[in-house]
Every structure is written in C-alpha cells, then in structure tokens.
Amino acid sequence: MNYPVLYESGITPPLCEVSAPEPDAG
After folding, report:
1. pLDDT tens digits, residue range 4-25?
2. Which domain of life is it from (predicted)?
3. Angstrom distance (rounded) from CA 25 to CA 21
4. Taking the complete model, does pTM exceed 0.70, yes or no?
C-alpha cells in the first residue's frame, strides 16, 4: 500500500479504495 506516500504528496486515495483493499494491488 502506497497510501502513506500519497498522503505525503498531498494526494488522498478514493474512499472506495480506503474502505476496501485494491483488487488490482499486487
């Protein structure tokens, strides 16, 4: 999960991805 990196960049992931894990995330 690259969420911490996205948050540092000032970008927040979609709520749908936050509520559920990414199916395409290997």
Report:
1. 665 666 666 665 555 555 666 5
2. Bacteria
3. 8
4. no
